[in-house]
Design brief:
By secondary structure, the protein is α/β, with parallel strands linked by helices. It contains 8 helices and 8 strands; from the N terminus they run βαβαββαβαααβαβαβ. Helix 1 links the parallel strand 1 and strand 2. Helix 4 packs antiparallel against helix 5. It is globular and about 50 Å long. The N and C termini lie far apart (44 Å).
């Protein structure tokens, strides 16, 4: 399995969950993030600052896109025919409206238009593409909490900002170099 952006907040969980499910995991990370993703069980790391992921010669059966843009384009090139890429960072496709957002046909038509380029690239690569619209799930969160309590899943915390500095927290996240999760403490002093 290939996961883009493994050292980020979602990526650190994705690597651990994929390993818990038995997957061989390759991810992208900078030199600064390599030790972190390896400590979470990642089998192979591609340094996105020096390597083009489409030129590594590796092929994957599944992909989880956390970056979008150029990274997603490169992912289409490294997947085996028939593989599936799920993205939380790119554009929603028609199934998102129909399956995840209550069957809204007008929204599905709009998603058909805006995702045409991505769906065309996926089709040419013989890869299935799906946007993951996340929904809160009590049972899923309970399972994650149980894995954390059992020590199967580690919560990686990069920084915590006081509520008064929420703008700084968002600016830090936008720079795209957080290693793990960034939180905001809502407790008042």
């Amino acid at each position: 399995m290939f996961i883009s952006g493994g050292a980020g907040g979602v990526g650190t969980f994705a690597i651990q969950i994929a390993k818990w499910l038995g997957a061989h995991v390759t991810t992208t990370a900078s030199k600064q993030g390599e030790a972190l993703v390896r400590s979470l069980g990642c089998d192979e790391v591609i340094d996105y600052t020096t390597q083009d992921i489409s030129k590594t010669g590796r092929r994957f059966h599944a992909g989880f896109d956390l970056i979008g843009g150029k990274t997603l384009d490169e992912m289409f090139e490294i997947m085996e025919p028939g593989a599936k890429i799920v993205s939380v960072a790119a554009l929603p496709e028609p199934q998102t409206a129909m399956k995840d957002l209550g069957g809204r046909r007008a929204l599905s038509a709009m998603f058909w238009v805006i995702s045409y380029g991505i769906r065309s690239r996926a089709r040419r690569a013989e890869v299935r593409y799906r946007f993951l619209f996340m929904h809160p799930s009590g049972s899923d969160l309970a399972q994650l909490a149980e894995l954390i309590e059992q020590g199967e899943l580690k919560v990686i915390l990069d920084r915590t900002f006081p509520f008064e500095k929420i703008a700084d927290a968002l600016a830090y996240l936008e720079r795209g170099h957080a290693k793990g999760n960034v939180t905001v403490n809502t407790a008042r002093a």
